[in-house]
Amino acid sequence: MPLLLHNWRNIVALWITAVDAADDEALHALLDLLQKVTHDLHMTLLPVYADLLAKLLDFLRRPIATPALTALLATLSGLFRYLLVPSIHLDLLQQMWSSFHAILPNCSSEVRRAAGEVWASVLRRLKISARENAVILMANNLDSVEIPSAWMLIFACKSVSSTLHTTSPSIIRPLIDCYLTSPDPGPLYTLLRRTLTSIIHHCKDADQFSGIADPLITLFSTIVNQPPSNEVEIERLRRILELISVVCGVRQGSRLMSSHLSQLASALPNIRICPPIKTALLHFSASILTAGDMSMATNVGYLFNSEALKVPKFGSSLLGALAELSWGEWKLVALPVLLRSTTDLLTMEPKQTLRLLSSLTHADKLGEVDVVWRRTMDVWLSERLSRWELTPDGVNELRNLLSLSVYAEKTPVLLVGIVQRMLDAPNSEERQQVDLVEWTRTVMRRWSWSHCVLNGLAGLTQSRQDNFSLSGKYLSMMVFLISPLSSDATSFSEIYLHLRTCISSHSRSLRLSALEILSSKLVKSSPGEQDVLKRCLQGEEVSLDAQGVHERVLRIGRIGQVIKDGEPLATDLCIRWLISQLKVNLRPLWSPAAEALSSLAKRFGDSVWVCFFDELQAITRVAEACRLPEWLFENVEQNENPWEDERTWRDGAAHKIRSAMSSWLDQEHDRKCIILDQKSSDRFDLVSFETQLLSTMGQCASLVEKHNRELVPFFLSIAVSDNTVSSLPRYKINAWLTLFSKFTNPKALHSTETLFELHCSLLSHPNRALQTAALNCVFKYESPNLVRHENTLRRFSDDMLWRDELVHLDLSSLDITDRPMFVDITIHLLFGIMLEKKGHTRGGDRRASVLSVLAVCTEDELGLFVDLMLKPMRSSRRPWKDEMFMLSPVPLGVSPKQQVGFLNLLGEVLRQLGPNVVAHWPALLGTALNLTAAVQTRLGGSKQIEVSAASGIDDTQGEEEEDREDTAAEADTNVDEGSVMRTMRSIRQLGFRRLADFFRNPVSFDYSPYLRTSFDAIFSPRITLLDQENTQAPSALLEVLSLWASRPEYVYYLVDYDHRVLRKVLDCLVATNVKPAVLMHVFDIVDRLLAFSSEDDVIVERIVKPHLSVLLQNLTTLVERTKGDQHLSSPLAQRQISVLSQVAHHITDPEQVAVLVGLLSPLLRKPGKVVPEKTKVNLLTVLNNLFSLVPELSDPTSPTFRCVYELLSHLFLTFRSNGARIALTSTFKQLAFVHPTLQALAPLLESLNACSTKCVNEPDFDRRLTTFTTLNEESYAILSTHEWLPALYNALYFIQDPEELAICNNAAFTLRRFIGVVASDTPAAIEAEPVFMRTVFPVLKNALRSKSELVRAEALGVIAHAVLKCERIASLQEMRPLLAGGDDEVSFFTNIHHIQTHRWTRALRRLGKQCNEGYFRGKTLVDVFAPLVEHYVVSTASLDHLLVAEAINTLGRIAKQLPWTAYYSLVQK
Questions:
Q1: Is the pLDDT of residue 1065 over 80?
Q2: What is the pLDDT of residue 406?
Q3: Among the residues of 700-729, which ranges form H helices?
Q4: Which of 81, 79, 66, 77 is nearest to 28 (CA)?
């Protein structure tokens, strides 16, 4: 804890740095850490509270994993608990809410709700004063956070077991105070309504809600009991009334105690009704009365209703709302008050009162009324009808007047004049007679589209009696009422002309009314027409439900039996009525209607065709909709109080009250009702009707084929646009194709060639049903070249058989006459199969199978396939052949989904058929470049960064991502800008991948014209950030550049169009956090360029040399960053060194050389497990080329020379392979060239490591032995200590070679010669002694651990010689007693490896005795004798048991003299 307190600032700073780069898993751990730190430090973190809060809140708007989000919310809660709540600084509260307010609008709904719960816990923990300030802050800053604020208050107030938290009153009361005084109460009212509604639902009964209800009722009583004296107090009263209405309305006030309701109701008569509070008072009074019981209704309710009617508009609205809400005491309390005040209300507020009485009549709530009231209404209604005028307000009033017409005896007479005025007809002199024929003609001209008008007119015509006197039947729709009829009649043809569209209408009421009018005595018709009308009317009168289906089907089948020849109108009526049955949403009627039409087509073909074609044209032009008035399409939805999306925020009872209030306060209510009455409730399914109509036409195929000159142009006009198939719905195309497939002689059709081409093009549609229909149409042409292969082609359209057929397909065996057409149709079919996206591979397996089959097609045949690919791109292969390539914009009709699909398919084609379609590459490559350039321009070039290092997303995850990108492009089209940009980036990425596929194909193609035109638009904008965008993985662009470097003819693209390309590629080597995969990719590029440069000098001059300095600088930086042995052994580090070895001979800068020598030298000293020998050879190659550029190497006293000289000398000990040793001698020769004093030593070293010129990788033993002889007999005397060093390392290496005895013996003799130098009294001995101790003696001691007895014997012999000769070296002289005074028979060094095994035991016994006498130091025992003795501690099966026992005894004596550390190490072996 003290350390935590002392370093808390550093810990927080490190946490902030780490959390910025953390992924979801790391973020969870970091947030958990911050929770614990916050718990431990508490208020100590207050200085950094703002920084931590900003960092944590920023994560709320990010899409993080659920565990991380949970940890984030817990961390926020802890931060508030330990820092915000204990703090006495209210400015922290202000800062907290400001931060919350800024971040919450950008969060998802789930996060906002969770964050609200966090803030609710803060509100509960705050002190009362701070809590009130927090609530006031929320209330004053609700912009864009209304929903989160509601959740905060709700979670703060709710407690367990359907109870409220104790802090609830202190949270709600400040909010109510703000609401009562706020200049903008709307958001606060919504917040309170949602909060109170949710709390009321949460509470189980009134007792649990009393904590909020008590102060609220008290506040209400205080405000109401003080009569308002100014506008401010009136507004305050209005607001408290609205708020109390919520509490009374939700659950019908069941969470209020009876005392609360009584207290509220008692205040009702004391509230003066004034305009500013009318709406609020209406809401409150309706809520409290519906929530109260009978006693309240008969007492306060009766008094208030009586008082309310003194303000007629308010009172009538209140009574209307109560009636609409089905108030239980309506008949007992409200109705008597209304009936008693009706006369006064009609005088003071006629419009609202009329609406009230009309609604009550509709709802049957007036009941039985007395004669006096009836007589009063009769007089008043007659007077209003007699003065009625045709105005908008008059129409609204007339609707209500007609509802009350049952109370007026003279209504029919008065309505005649109204009807005459509306029809602009002359008034009749005799009021009991009207010209109904003229009425009918006028109605037909003006309102034949209206089912209400026709229904009224039908009612008039059917109510006619023999004496033409007035009847008691009334027409209730709009302005039509039963009127007297005249004896005149009109002709059937005149009326039918206006009603024939009604006969074929989808509306049953229109059809029924039209048939009733036509069958009335008002219309003169022939017997044949009457028979048809009778049958149609009988069929239409049957109900449209399951019970009436059978009877209607029977009547449909019999209607054609009564049609007679020579009755064109009857025939037309019958046909249109049968067609209308196809519009009825009842499936069992369609087939009988189609069969009836088919039978009529055999007798009245032309008439049936005219009706069919009229309906087809009507579908296209939607002609019926044009006849409807504009006002009929107005949005008159009456529910202006929509439901809340959140279930706990809504209540059915309260919503019903608000809806009733909204309705009765709406001044346009009557007009909206009139419009709603005029709208037909019948639904017309245009898709279903069109399908059934075309299917019915298919049953009359001969008739339709006869009129093909009308049908075919019509079909082509809707199906073909700009020589391409328009985007007709699939169902429509399928229905049309099914119709055409039933024609018997399609070759005789109008525009038959165009139709055939259309059918062929539809074969490439990915829908199998559509393919099958199109194939049926093609086979109808009965081409002999296709008929022979019909079974094959049909199996291709079968989802189960196409794979088997594809396997057995052999295009090479086709007859030459059949091949063109068969291949054409096959390619269309297979292309459609490729586009299917069924299964988990999304069509990938289909594409591979199909393309493998098409590989045997010729180049011209594949041209059709290319055209099919380019068709969605509004292009083809022909324009690209002779034109010079220029970038062109993508056509407007090409969607992102189509672009992604084309690029994905292009990838498959290039991989499977790339060399086969080279002739069509201009079109494919040009289209791909156009798409890529277009999205690059849209993304804004380099400004639109998608840096992989920042996002942590791999820009190229391989080809398996393409299907996911295709699926993402098929998502909902209503996407935000971010989704659009992601789709654009996917298209750009796919574009670069396809370019890579082009360059990957092993064919010769000139890309220069395309790159010259498109480079600035596509590549250059991406080059600027190439090193930043390629840190996590190689991008598609880097893949393209790598492919340019893979072939000599492409390498010039790296420098021809933008000089920055290769420089930016090399900069990827030193990019921040670059991954090994990217580095290996760049090294591949460099390796290929260097390989090509060795064969082509032009590449050297144009590409290699201009970028050499950048490459070397970046390689140097990369080597400097390589730290740790684990990195040095990686393939990446070895690759770096390999590249350095290839370019080292180009280095000319001495500073770079010095840096490289300093970097590479330590690598040569690393063990072989860390830096392999092969890598060290490459390093030597680098140094070999750099020695001449290092001036310090010519000075033998310089540290650089000593370091390099000792390094190269030491490598003679570690290098094992002959090739490596030859490379080392070559490097030493290069050093000798720089340092002339070594020129005599270099040949000696070369000869010691010489290899045979006849046998590869075999030593030249003669030369080596000759050199050892020369060294041991002559040269040893003239070598200086400095020159002895490489010779010693060679001898130490060869003495450990157990296979070559002669070389080993000579090496041992060389070491004895050097020991002689060390033991001499010459000045050289002083310099040689340290070399022996640091270099020779440690290696000899290590050789004693060799498994080879020969090596151990030679090494021990050299050590014995040193013990004998080197009297000045104390560490050697302590072993001198083992020499036994030079007696070889007794000497330990002689006997321990003697040929006679019994001498081994003697030597061990002598060594043990010397150990007991304490002659040897522990280090000597551990380094020299213990390794020797250990070799004899083996199984007695392979060695004499006495010797093994003596060896064990000797080891015990050695261990006795060892210190603890050495002893413990020996025991552990």
A1: yes
A2: 83
A3: 701-706, 708-719
A4: 66
